[in-house]
Amino acid sequence: MGAVIALDTLFNGGRVWKGRPAAPPASVHPTGLAALDAVLPSGGWPESALSEILMATEGVGELQLVLPTLARLSAAGERIVLVAPPYTPYAHAWHNAGVDLRQLAVIQAEERDALWAAEQCLRSGSCGAVLCWPRKADDRALRRLQVAAETGQTLAFAWRALGEAVNASPAALRLAIEARPAQVRVLKCRGGLAHPAPIALAGH
């Protein structure tokens, strides 16, 4: 009992530092989907961090979530780099989404080189956003991308298979996109609890 009283005295007297989770800084990069921004701790994409977007299959509108951000970045003169995209970007669609194609760069790389290329682009600090589609990436490889994003103060986006959701990830944000119905789920978000309810993508 005496030990409990002694501890209370220390805590209440301010002699022991009590850590409190720091709120993440407000993002200057809203996703463009207001309902999603409303449930993210920073109000948008986490700054200087890796965001992982998981999908059951490609071609379900997975780029819709990032195009508004990429349009803003490119309009501000920031370089957007796509590392080994699974399909050749359709320039007309990107242009219609407001992306300045002069700021868009595509790096073709084999799987073994793609993660390295993405990491170098992130570390350089010369890009506004780096997008990649790693098919084989363990926790260590993803952690390198996260650290590189922090180092270069760059937004990093990685699209991966939905089956990867069962594996832990160092990404600051993990989203899952479902096709039918078109919706997005927050699986993990640094600085807050994941919002359990799906968010509709219809009309986005």
From TrEMBL:
Gene3D superfamilies: P-loop containing nucleotide triphosphate hydrolases. Signal peptide: none annotated. Keywords: DNA damage. It comes from the Bacteria. GO terms for biological process: DNA repair. This is CDP-6-deoxy-delta-3,4-glucoseen reductase.
